[in-house]
Structures are given as C-alpha cells and as structure tokens.
Amino acid sequence: VDENNNLIGIKEDKSIIHEKGLLHREIAVIIQNENGEYLVQKRSLNKKGAPNMWSFTTGHVELGEDYETTAIREIKEETNLDISDLEVFNVVDDIQPGKHYITIQLIANKFSGELINLEPNKHDQWKWFSLDNLPTNLYTPTREFIQEYLNRSIK
Question: 28 and 106 in contact (C-beta within 8 Å)?
Fold first, then answer.
C-alpha cells in the first residue's frame, strides 16, 4: 500500500516486506467473552516481532482480501474460533522498529467454537483477561488499542 492506504498491486512475502520495512496493512481484533474478558495471546519467544509479549490477534491483509475476511481467517487459523458481527473500530498508523503498518482495528461482537492454540510455534498461550487485570508486558500496539477502546467507552 502507499502512504494513503491505497493498494499498489505488488505482492511480496511477509519476510521481504518486513526486511525492506515496506508499508503494509494488518488487522488487530478484540474478542470479548460473556464474562467481559478479552482474548489475548502470549507471543512465542521464537517470534521475531515482540517475542514473549501479550497482544490481541493480528495478521497481514492478503492481496485482494478485505479486512473482515482477514480477521475471520486469522482468528480461525490461530484459535479455531469463528467470529462474526465485525465492526471497524479504528485505523492507525503503526510504526514499530523496522516495520510500518496501517493497522485496521476490529471488534468481533460474536464468536463461537472451542479455543485451541493452532499455532503453538507462534503463540505460547491464549488467555481471557479483564481490562483491569491485563498482563504488564503488553505489545505497544495492543496497549494503544486498549487505551483508545477505553477512551471511547468512557465518553
């Protein structure tokens, strides 16, 4: 994508995109359970980006894919959960060391299925947390997502 979030039609492997520091899109998803807790993943020590940090589910938008499709695919691939009733919450310019994302933050208002860690090489664990009891080692984009979510909830 370009600096205005327009597709430029070039498809690159994720590793090349990150290696070159190219601007690209990803999604981040909030899922809340019936107890008011939010699903957070602990990233594996093997992850190149933010190892051993807790974060919401994120994933790269594939060429030709819309944001909702990406969110549904990523959640299913990583957790076995089926999500629906999605809404775009925010679009943020997310600059990390050596990476630059346009992150589309979504809220999944419904989910079903059994939570299973389908990518144990990428995530050590998944856990439900209340927003007042989150782990301290949150990935910065997740922390910022939560802060904006809380700011909007208070208004």
Answer: yes
The pLDDT of residue 119: 95
Task: Tell me which DSSP letter residue 138 carries.
Answer: B
| pLDDT reported for residue 1 | 47
Query: Is this prediction's pTM over 0.90?
Result: no
Three-class secondary structure of residue 51 per DSSP: coil
User: If DSSP codes are grouped into helix, strand and coil, which group holds residue 20?
Assistant: helix
Query: How many CA within 13 A on the CB side of residue 69?
Result: 6
Whole-number Cα distances in Å, 3 to 6, 21, 40, 93 = 7, 13, 29, 9
Helix, strand, coil share of the chain (percent; to 5) = 25, 40, 40
Copy the structure tokens of residue 49: 């980006």
Q: Which H helix or E strand runs over 67?
A: helix 67-79
Q: Looking at the chain, how many residues does it have? A: 155
C-alpha distances out from residue 107 to 32, 46, 80, Å: 9, 28, 17
